[in-house]
Every structure is written in structure tokens, then in C-alpha cells.
Design brief:
This protein is α/β, with parallel strands linked by helices. It has 13 helices and 16 strands. Helices cover 32% and strands 19% of the residues. It binds flavin-adenine dinucleotide.
């Protein structure tokens, strides 16, 4: 039994690590962090590939971006960020386009030379010719954002691969309205703060968790530790909520991913960090080329080899990594049953993207952890 332990945090992604850091340093309480993987950092983890010296993102490209000054000021205390600006290309029928759809994508795709205002008129005609005013599913929502032609090229095949279902059978709630830019801005994100940790996410997480009040247990699942946790210890659980309750109401549906890694004897494979493959006939959705995240690391950037990873969406099964929640009505209702059960336990808080069954970017995970900490602090310090 861990006597004197006030908090046990399950999971060392941004949700768990930020809470551990705040509780350890501000509340001066002992925290045990339990992580089932062999490394900290959750899905945001990155590390150096020993063979090439290139920093790789183990669970696919992770670009930090936020508009939240509190989050940015907080995370910058644990690492310096580069000024990397993310740009994504999409390959469709052997031609390369800029993503998200912008004026260059429209002009290249329709073989035109439209000005911004002409492109607005042109796309409005494309959209109105589809006649969708009240989109009832993901396909209709996407078509009512970009028109049928751009939908067929860049959304339809990609979405079918990503979700493993026909877009017409998916809930419109799964996507927000698709962004279209009527200028040549090729930046993927609009946020004012953006970058990649200069010495990698792994180092940033090391610093988050380096406080003397934090004890870290890697390769350990909560389920095998539970019997050693004192009954008055507060459990903060950032794992899957349905697993916590032994899938009592059935498993929540997720999409999982398979990453196929390859080291190429080439200095540069695709000229950029991410290329989307929107043709349905290509089985993967993206290729990541990691050296492009660190052009400032001149040695690995100019090395004669490069590391790429092909991303294949796959159906999730119990035991696999859960990446994208399928937030349709059926699953959300099932999730609410688990949440109700969790809320009735006074020494349990469920949070994080896995716990709350939400797609969160890293900044949202940090923002939620900081807000949760403020609530905990109020109850700890009257
Ligand atoms: C492919 C992909 C790309 C992404 N790219 C970006 C991006 O570019 N920018 C961005 O801002 N966000 C991105 N994200 C989102 C980002 O990964 C999440 O915001 C972030 O990981 C959330 O942190 P978290 O701590 O809530 O969850 P996680 O990072 O998933 O951490 C949860 C941790 O809990 C551990 N755990 C779970 N159950 C147990 C258990 N029972 N016992 C012990 N440990 C357990 C897990 O092993 C994991 O380490 C991406 C996500 C995916 C899937």
C-alpha cells in the first residue's frame, strides 16, 4: 500500500502530466503517475530514431498550436518551441494540391486563374447546384461546404478510409464546417502560437514530470496497481472510461491506426512533413516525413537518410490503441452512462481525451487539465 499518497494519476499524456505537475508543485502533494506504456507523453510522445538521429513522432505528426495565451505561457515554461508553421499537401490522381482548400487548390483543381472574389462566386455556384440546405449527414455537410467536385476529390475517399464507413452513413456532427480560404495562405492552422518543441516532446514531458513529489511507474496499468492505492487517495483517470468500468455498458467505438515505418536512403522523400492521400484506391491516408519538423537540426535534416511513416486507419478492437472517438448519438449516449457512474464515485475524476471520449488537440488537453486543477485547488485550499 502506498501510504501518504494523495493523488494517483493514470496516464502520462498532456492531461495526466499537466495535472501531476500542478498538484506536485503548487499543492506540494505526493503524486503517483501510472503509465501502461514504456514511455511518458501519451500520443504526443516523440524520440530520436537511433539509426538516423531523426526525431520521430511515434503516434503520427504532432504540431503544437493554440490561440490560448494561458496554455501557451504555461507550456513554454517546460520547453522552447520552434517557429515551425504546418503546411499540408494532398495527392489526388497523381497531382499535388494544398490543404486545407485555398485559392491555389481551387485554381489548380479547376485549372483556372480566379481572383478571391471570383473564387467565392464560383464555389457558391458549385455549392448551390448541389441543393443541400439542411445537411443530414457528413457527406451532405461536406458537400454544402465545398461543393460536389472538391468533395469527391479531397473528402470522400479520405473520409471513407479514415472512418471505414460511407460518409453518407456518418453523423454530420463528426466534422465541423470545412474551412475554405479564398487567398493563398497555405498554413494549416490559424492559431497565433504554433511550433514544435526544439528538443522534442519526450524532453518536454521529462521536465513536466521531474518534480520530486512525482513518482512515475512505467509499464504499469492502473488495473494492476489498484489494490495498492489507499482508499482515500484521489484517482485521476485519463484512460478509457469504458475499460475502467470493465465495459459494463458495452465498448465505446473508436478508430485506430496502424503506422508502417520505413527508413529511406534518400535525403528528402516528399519535400514536406505531411502529404494526404485522398484517392480511395491508396490504402493509407497520410505519409509523415519527420525530419521536416526540425529544419534547424542541420545534421539530421541534411542526413542522407529519412524516416517516413504511412498511416493506415483501422477498426478498433479491445486491446488496440484508441485514436479517434466515433462521436455519434449511439456512442455518446453510452458514454454518458459511464460518465454518470464515474461521477458517483467521490475519489475518482475521469478526464483526458480517452476518459471523456472526445477528440482533443494538445492545447485543449492542457487547457482542460489546468481548469480541472483550479477546481481541485479550490477544494484543497479553502
Ligand atoms: C494521429 C493523431 C495525430 C494528432 N496530431 C495532433 C496535432 O498535430 N496537434 C495537436 O494539438 N493534437 C494532435 N493530436 C491529439 C493529441 O494526441 C491529444 O490531444 C493528446 O494526446 C491528449 O492527451 P491525453 O493525455 O488526454 O491523452 P493520451 O495522450 O492518449 O494519454 C493517455 C495516456 O494514458 C495511458 N493509459 C491509458 N489507460 C491506462 C491504464 N489503464 N493504465 C495506465 N495508463 C493508461 C496511455 O498509455 C496514454 O499514455 C493527434 C492525435 C492523433 C490520434
Amino acid at each position: 500500500m502506498y501510504s501518504g499518497l494523495s493523488y494517483c494519476i493514470v496516464g502520462s499524456g498532456f492531461s495526466g502530466s499537466v495535472l501531476a505537475e500542478r498538484i506536485a508543485s503548487v499543492l506540494n502533494k505526493k503524486v503517483l503517475v501510472v503509465e501502461k506504456r514504456s514511455h511518458i507523453g501519451g500520443n504526443s510522445f516523440s524520440d530520436i530514431d537511433q539509426a538516423t538521429g531523426i526525431e520521430i513522432h511515434k503516434y503520427g505528426s504532432h504540431i503544437f498550436h493554440t490561440s490560448n495565451t494561458t496554455v501557451w505561457d504555461y507550456i513554454c515554461k517546460f520547453g522552447e518551441f520552434s517557429n515551425y508553421q504546418h503546411k499540408v499537401m494532398a495527392l489526388f490522381k497523381q497531382r499535388i494540391y494544398q490543404m486545407p482548400i485555398n485559392l491555389k487548390t481551387i485554381n489548380d483543381f479547376f485549372n483556372k486563374n480566379l481572383s478571391p472574389n471570383e473564387a467565392i462566386d464560383f464555389l457558391n455556384k458549385e455549392i448551390s447546384s448541389c441543393g443541400i440546405t439542411n445537411p443530414k449527414n457528413l457527406e451532405e455537410k461536406a458537400i454544402s461546404s465545398v461543393g460536389l467536385n472538391l468533395y469527391n476529390a479531397f473528402i470522400k475517399g479520405y473520409t471513407r478510409k479514415q472512418w471505414g464507413k460511407d460518409p453518407a452513413s456518418l453523423s454530420a456532427d463528426i466534422i465541423s464546417r470545412l474551412p475554405v480560404r479564398f487567398n493563398y495562405n497555405a498554413n494549416y492552422f490559424n492559431d497565433p502560437y504554433q511550433g514544435i518543441p526544439l528538443d522534442g516532446y519526450g524532453q518536454l514531458f521529462d521536465r513536466l514530470l521531474s518534480h520530486r513529489n512525482i513518482e512515475l511507474r512505467l509499464n504499469t496499468s492502473y488495473e494492476e496497481m489498484a489494490q495498492y492505492i489507499p482508499p482515500d487517495c484521489m484517482i485521476i483517470y485519463t484512460g478509457m472510461i469504458d475499460r475502467l468500468f470493465d465495459y459494463k455498458f458495452g465498448a465505446l467505438e473508436w478508430r485506430s491506426l496502424n503506422f508502417e515505418w520505413e527508413t529511406k536512403n534518400l535525403s528528402d522523400y516528399q519535400g514536406t512533413s505531411v502529404v494526404n492521400y485522398s484517392d480511395e484506391s491508396v490504402p493509407f491516408t497520410r505519409i509523415h516525413e519527420f525530419k521536416h519538423y526540425h529544419p534547424e537540426r542541420t545534421e539530421s535534416f541534411h542526413a542522407p537518410q529519412t524516416v517516413i511513416s504511412r498511416e493506415y486507419p483501422i477498426a478498433w478492437q479491445q486491446g488496440a490503441e484508441a485514436f479517434y472517438p466515433v462521436n455519434d448519438t449511439y456512442n455518446n449516449e453510452r458514454f454518458n452512462k459511464y460518465l454518470y457512474k464515474a461521477k458517483r464515485k467521490s475519489n475518482l475524476i475521469v478526464t483526458g481525451r480517452l476518459g471523456l471520449y472526445k477528440y482533443w488537440d494538445m492545447d485543449t488537453a492542457i487547457e482542460n487539465a489546468l481548469k480541472l486543477f483550479e477546481r481541485l485547488k479550490k477544494s484543497e485550499i479553502p
